[in-house]
Amino acid sequence: MTRQIRIVDVFTEKPLAGNQLAVVLDGRGLETEVMQRVAREMNFSETTFIFPPDDPAHAARVRIFTPVIEMPFAGHPTIGTAWVLLSEGLVPQGTTEFTLEEGVGPVPVRVESTSNGLLRLWMTHPNLRFGETYDRALVAATIGVSESELVADAPTQVASTGLPFLYVPLRDARAVDAAVSDHARLRALKDDPAFGVFLFASAGENRLYSRMFSVDTPEDPATGSASGPLGAVAVKYGLVRRAPEVSIVSEQGTKMGRQSFIHINLAYSDGGDIPTRIEVGGTVMPVLSGTLSDF
Hints:
About 45% of the residues are buried. Helix 6 links the parallel strand 13 and strand 14. By secondary structure, the chain is an alpha+beta fold. The chain has helices spanning about 30-40, 75-85, 135-145, 175-180, 185-190, 225-235, and strands at about 5-10, 20-25, 45-50, 60-65, 70, 95-100, 105-115, 120-125, 130-135, 155-160, 165-170, 195-200, 205-215, 245-250, 260-265, 275-290. It folds into 2 domains: about 5-125 and about 285-290, Roll (Diaminopimelate Epimerase, Chain A, domain 1); about 130-275, Roll (Diaminopimelate Epimerase, Chain A, domain 1), CATH 3.10.310. The termini are close together. It is globular.
């Protein structure tokens, strides 16, 4: 048996930018160990495998693998896989809303057309949780910058909508670009391959400039699972002005030559720091269609 595989670039409007994703259209019959090996062979930050849904009301069940572990939830794999489902006719033509089943549970997706004729797909994040804060001097040393480059009145804090990331607000884009991803220092901070350190700075009104380092990926060009909490962190600590509806664009991947633009929508209904709705959206570019050999 051969299986169709698609490679797409996510969170970009031009090919050979954004974040690469491999999508295997039919994962039925593949053992977990084989899927992990395929993801290692692809060597992208993630590879996804599509299965029939457990709930027939949903579009598909999706399993997500980095080269080293399976992930319960991830952003650019959700957006990219949803786009492939649409482009391959695996959801009915004209569908504007559907749900994917992932390790964290059902993930709603909606589809809209952009002004230049592309499709922008939006994923709804699970509920947000703010977590522990980290010592600022330790974090600065971990990423190779001076503590003075951190925003003075904002902590370095973990937030999560399914995957935990440590958010590090920096003074400007120059400081973000000066940071260094060091495997040994990241492991010393937290030895967990699913844990990322997300650096960001204000880049103008409702715009952010960002990078993400993790233990298993030296740098990620576009991190949708981190970008939802990123918006909430930026609002919480005053880097983006709060309003009942907040729209943010985060630029990521530029330093590594894969510029990405991630759209973030937040809704607030009271005085708390937790948004009542978090959406992350982006466009997708096809790159390659092929056949995966049987294993």
